[in-house]
């Protein structure tokens, strides 16, 4: 080296060593003192948030800790061009820099995955065990992040709140708990209840996996990443199109086989367009798709009803929906009331758009 080159190299080496030391220190601080951890010490409360309360040391200290923890595993990878972003009470994954299509941006070794291979009951039991271990869990950085998660699924709402949407599709608002009870038996354990809600609202085809569970949902053409997994080996998240800097990364939940009412029931949010909606009348299911925010409506191929039939029963459903909307209950606390109203408004807007589409197409048919 020349003298100047040597000092430049030395400064770069010192900077790199400092970064490595800071990363090591971050991971060291995540190692719990299990000597003082008691089993089942997490104090849970029922309700919309279903959050861990009590010891603040059990709370999520920051998303970068979790990403760095995944990177520390052999075979673990989280692309440094992505970051966890926050908007209000929700988190998502955003690109810090442009990313090309077909790049693997997350890879998780199987030891970090709570597998769904053994079924719902086993997955809930596995998560419950990790939650009960708290700081002594081998997955503690991820468990700590899950401790800070709101789970606003309607199945966990109090009865007076659920009454606000009981007349709306899909109707089977407690199916999450009903399915678990039928398959796994009844349980009064609040930790089982929280585990079930986390599983239903965050699991993917592979099971439960850190970082992967932070991607938000949106249907094509907005979905820009996809999941790939080999049981017993790895879980990967791969881009399926070029991503611009600042763009949020979306994945499709449930392989795109869910409607907006089912998304609200199973995940607790109102789906953005494009979205599939439905209502039921006289034993029939009336389907329609809202393609964009402007309210453009398409009829799915599986829709078997005539426009006249759709219009007649759709108008009846809209009128009953609007009538129920006026019956607000003062005793329903926030945020249930706001969530119920948001969903009712979204359903009403979608149905109005579908009725307008049906009326326009009926008029064109009559003019022929």
Q: How would you sum up this structure, described in words?
A:
The structure is a single chain. The chain is of the alpha+beta class. Helix content is 39%, strand content 17%. It is built from ten helices and 15 strands. It has helices at residues 3-30, 63-71, 120-133, 140-146, 159-162, 175-184, 190-202, 260-267, 307-325, 336-367; strands at residues 43-44, 52-53, 77-78, 82-87, 90-95, 104-109, 114-115, 207-208, 216-217, 225-230, 234-239, 248-251, 275-281, 284-290, 297-298. The strands form five sheets. A four-stranded antiparallel beta sheet has the order 3-6-11-10, covered by helices on one side. The protein has a four-stranded mixed beta sheet with strand order 4-5-12-9, with no helix packed on it. Helix 3 packs across helix 7 (190-202) and helix 9 packs antiparallel against helix 10 (336-367). The longest helix is centred in the last third of the chain and has 32 residues, at 336-367. The termini are far apart. The model is unreliable at 6-10 and 35-60 (pLDDT under 50).
């Amino acid at each position: 080296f020349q003298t100047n080159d040597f000092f430049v190299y030395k400064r770069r080496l010192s900077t790199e060593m400092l970064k490595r030391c800071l990363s090591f220190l971050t991971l060291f601080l995540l190692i719990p003192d299990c000597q003082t951890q008691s089993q089942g010490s997490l104090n849970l409360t029922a309700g919309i948030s279903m959050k861990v309360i009590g010891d603040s040391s059990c709370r999520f200290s920051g998303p970068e800790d979790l990403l760095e923890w995944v990177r520390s595993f052999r075979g673990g990878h989280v692309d440094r061009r992505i970051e966890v972003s926050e908007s209000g009470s929700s988190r998502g994954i955003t690109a810090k820099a442009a990313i090309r299509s077909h790049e693997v941006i997350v890879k998780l070794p199987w030891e970090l995955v709570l597998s769904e291979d053994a079924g719902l009951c086993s997955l809930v039991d596995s998560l419950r065990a990790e939650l009960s271990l708290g700081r002594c869990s081998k997955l503690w950085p991820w468990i700590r992040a899950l401790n800070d998660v709101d789970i606003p699924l309607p199945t966990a709402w109090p009865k007076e709140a659920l009454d606000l949407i009981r007349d709306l599709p899909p109707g089977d608002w407690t199916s999450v708990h009903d399915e678990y009870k039928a398959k796994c038996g009844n349980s009064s354990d609040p930790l089982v209840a929280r585990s079930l809600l986390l599983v239903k609202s965050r699991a993917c085809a592979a099971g439960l996996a850190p970082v992967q569970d932070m991607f938000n949902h949106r249907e094509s053409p907005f979905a820009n990443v996809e999941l790939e997994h080999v049981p017993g080996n790895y879980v990967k998240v791969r881009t399926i199109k070029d991503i611009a800097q600042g763009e949020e990364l979306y994945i499709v939940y449930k392989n795109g086989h869910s409607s907006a009412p089912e998304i609200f029931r199973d995940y607790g949010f109102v789906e953005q367009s494009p979205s599939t909606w439905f209502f039921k009348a006289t034993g029939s299911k009336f389907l329609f798709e809202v393609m964009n925010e402007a309210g453009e409506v398409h009829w799915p191929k599986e829709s078997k009803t005539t426009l006249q039939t759709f219009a007649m029963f759709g108008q009846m459903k809209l009128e009953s929906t609007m009538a129920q909307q006026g019956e607000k209950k003062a005793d329903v606390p926030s945020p249930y009331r706001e969530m119920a109203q948001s969903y009712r408004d979204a359903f009403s807007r979608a149905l109005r758009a579908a009725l307008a589409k049906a009326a326009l197409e009926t008029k064109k048919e009559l003019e022929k």
